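Q: Got a minute? One more chain.
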Amino acid sequence: MLKKIKIHQAVSVYSNYDENSKTKNFLSEGQIVDFNREKRRNGINWMEIYINNQKAYIKKDLSKIFILKEVRLADDSCNVLFFEPKKEGYSEFEDLFLPAQNDDNTLEEIQIRRVYEKGNKENFIKLYYDENAVDIHNKILIEKDKMIISAEKGNFLEIFHGQKTGYTLSSVSYNEGKDWWIMPLIILIMSVVTIGIFAAILMTGWIVVGPILLIPGFILAVVIIVFLQIIIAILSAAFKGIRKRL
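A: Always. Here it is, folded:
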């Protein structure tokens, strides 16, 4: 599972879970560091990170850091806009791509688009840019393609794909990876519950009396499975909370 943090504003580095352990070091905007886990001490959430293979700590301030998400696209497709500035001083996405045409109508147009619901629905945002100021590359991702989200910026997601940084619509649908043990556990429980309920129905003779009586049994199975999934989600959240405090 991906465990990295991208720094969006400079943050101080600490040698321990203590505000008095502040060092002279800091992490700069754009840096990406590995982290081990989140800890909570004295009412403060800390991120345990690695710098030059040594443990260090930063405060969990989501206005300054972003925990990278490794996801797979759930939509039919979307396009990702990659770019390289040609002029100094214009390196940011919002500096180069504008939401409206200029007065002289000299800007080029590009659309950032998502397609979903079996290709029957789509939405897009038009952006305008100066072709003399930036080179662009437009890549299409399809369902189940992997991408790494590194920031959320209003209507757009900043993502890593193929060692490059690009932008797509924030409305795209995607699936995040779960803790490795959750999905096998859910499948195991669902299988055991389904087999158990079917065996119970078989023993009661409902199947012999009439197939229509299977309906309540399957409804009950669905209810139990949903209930168990809720319990698993609660246990997962509790597990993470306990891990923070260890």
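A: The mean pLDDT is 84.
Q: Perfect, thanks.
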